[in-house]
Amino acid sequence: MTRVVDGDTIDVDPGGRVRLIGIDTPEAVDPRRPVECFAKEASAAMGGLVANRTVLLELDPTQGERDTFGRLLRFVWLPSESAATQTPQGARPTLVNFELIARGYAHEFTYNTSYKYRDLFKQAQAHAQRYKLGLWAPETCAGFTARPAPTPRPTR
Questions:
Q1: How far is CA 132 from the centre of its chain?
Q2: How far apart are CA 66 and CA 33, in angstroms?
Q3: 77 backbone dihedrals φ, ψ, rounded to 5°
Q4: CA–CA separation, 125 vs 102, rounded Å?
Q5: Catalytic site includes residue 19
Q6: Element holding 123 (H helix, E strand)
Q7: Could you say which of 34, 51, 87, 155 has the lowest number of CB atoms within 10 Å?
């Protein structure tokens, strides 16, 4: 089963903490930093895709086994029987990393070296930017997520 840590990190049982390859979402849980613009939405989107579901993890040998924090580096797939995306032919496996970028919840992120799905992820980001989805929308972050999330104003 899967538990969401934030928009780009999950805990899987068995397995441990997993950092999704090729994406970066606004920071939601770093105690040294304020919650960034669209971080809560990105975490909720991750939850909507994977929370309490079985996922498949794909290693990309170009990225190494773990990051500097000891998290597994993986592509995360929803198997076709639990896929969030349907086609006319039925359910198909869903690449969660791609979905988060395409829906505007994550930026494409290349750490040191190119990775297996990089071109696909860059196309997904261009789509989200073009259509001003999620964090690219002018009324949310306009792509600049490093700023703090807006503070809710009290209503009268």
A1: 17
A2: 23
A3: -115, 140
A4: 6
A5: yes
A6: helix 118-130
A7: 155
Tens of pLDDT along the chain (156 residues)?
A: 799 999 999 999 988 999 999 999 999 888 888 899 999 999 999 999 999 999 999 999 999 999 999 999 999 999 986 555 555 556 789 999 999 999 999 999 999 899 999 999 999 999 999 999 999 999 999 999 988 887 655 555
**How far, in Å, CA of 98 to CA of 106, rounded?**
9
Q: Which of 27, 36, 41, 99 is catalytic?
A: 27
Q: Is the peptide bond before 14 cis (omega within 30 degrees of 0)?
A: yes
Active-site residue identified among 33, 36, 41, 71 = 71
Residues in the chain: 156
